[in-house]
Amino acid sequence: MALRPIDNALPTTPIRPKKQPKIAIATQKQPPRTVNDETHVPVPSADVAIDYISSDNLKPMLDPEAKVQSLIEDLGSKNWIKVCESLNDVRRFALHNSSLLFPILGKIVLVVAKTMKNPRSALCKTSIMAASDIFNAFGDKLLDPSTSEAFDGLLIQLLLKASQDKKFVCEEAEKALGLMVGTLTPLPLLQKLRRYVSHSNLRVRAKAAVSLSKCVSKMGLEEMEEFGLKELIEVAADLVNDRLPDARDAARSISTCIYEALTKDEEQKMEVWQNFCHSKLPPIHAISILKIVKP
């Protein structure tokens, strides 16, 4: 009987190669590329440090008349570092050459408010610092018809930034709101703040309430009456049971200011105050106000 070749006796099984252990190789930094024997400088990374310059350290520009011509265009740059530099130029104009900035103030305020919406914290804080310098430089001019609408957008952005969690942005926005109250006439500013003390965001509501109460503290009885004593005490009554303590404190401050102005020349202070509260408010709200403000 013919024998089969031994190679065909059994099927062969291929030998699987052993896995080689993985070796982590540290990535080496590549040396800077050279172009024409000159070192190529890389583009600054997104986390490049930005210096926040105080107003006292902002010096005048050498040629402000030429610089103001390109200011709006520079503020619209896609390079965020250039925008930061342009915002500091806005601050220089406000501090040293406000007359050159005034003809385009409405456009500038719109851009500053828009920049506050940027998620990059450096841009946001620099724009808030610009707003502070604008308040100091222009005051009530921001309430002129040509800039009033732009100011409304700036105001809500400051309230939103003062309400957020980033501490250094929040603190800068609160500082700007304080300067706003200190530099603008109380009555027209109060009329603008009024809409925000009933905002759906409880933090915005509280920040608006604090600014509103500071406005009221600067007003006399005549100004309060011009705004509306009934509306003012209603604002306080709405805030007195708010969820946030800042809003409740503002309610107490507003109520106290009204009480002091209303009873300043009165002998029967308690009687005048009670009659006022009961005549302007529903009974349950009147009781709440009378509990927090006592002669």
Plain-language structure description:
This protein has 295 residues and is mainly alpha-helical. Among the domains are: 59-184, Leucine-rich Repeat Variant, CATH 1.25.10; 217-295, no CATH class. Helices cover 60% and strands 1% of the residues. It contains 15 helices and 2 strands. The chain has helices spanning 64-67, 71-75, 80-96, 98-101, 105-116, 121-138, 145-162, 167-183, 186-193, 202-217, 221-227, 229-239, 245-262, 269-280, 283-292; strands at residues 34-35, 38-39. One of its GO terms (molecular function) is microtubule binding. Residues 57-287 form the TOG domain. It comes from Lupinus angustifolius (Narrow-leaved blue lupine).
Major sheet characteristics: 2 strands, antiparallel
Secondary-structure-derived class: mainly alpha
Strand content: under 5%
Assembly type: single chain
Cα-based radius of gyration, to the nearest Å: 32 Å
- The level 1 CATH classification of the domain at 59-184 is Mainly Alpha
Shape: elongated
> Which second-level CATH architecture of the domain at 59-184 applies?
Alpha Horseshoe
Instruction: Provide a count of the helices.
Output: 15
Mean pLDDT, to the nearest integer, reads: 86
Quote the distance from N terminus to C terminus.
129 Å
- H/E series: EEHHHHHHHHHHHHHHH
CATH superfamily of the domain at 59-184: Leucine-rich Repeat Variant
**Approximate helicity band:** 55-70%
Strand order of the largest sheet: 1-2
Give the CATH topology of the domain at 59-184. Leucine-rich Repeat Variant
Q: What is the strand tally?
A: 2
Low-confidence stretches: 5-13, 21-47
